[in-house]
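SAMPLE LOG
Freezer: B-3
Tube label: C17
Construct: single chain, 99 aa
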Amino acid sequence: VLVVPVNNVARVVQRINQSFAAPLMLLLGAVLAIRLRGANPLQIYLLAFIPSIIDILLISGGEQMLKEATSAAGVLVCSSGNLGIAAMIAIAYRQVARN
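STRUCTURE (predicted):
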């Protein structure tokens, strides 16, 4: 039986989610730029930046939860930001693809 220390589980989950977060943030900005092509670039940046900051905070919070006790709730919190950004990308892409 392989026993992994709690800190290592937290670190692995955090690194996996951060590695998924970077391309998701780029895709969100790109899809929003296409969707809102007539908008001010600062507005698009803000619309992509706020969810990205929330994602980073959720990843950090989930890592802290996993450091205290390894649980499914910590993994869910850590991954929920990426799932939210992926949902935003899907919604914006669906609107772009319709036009």
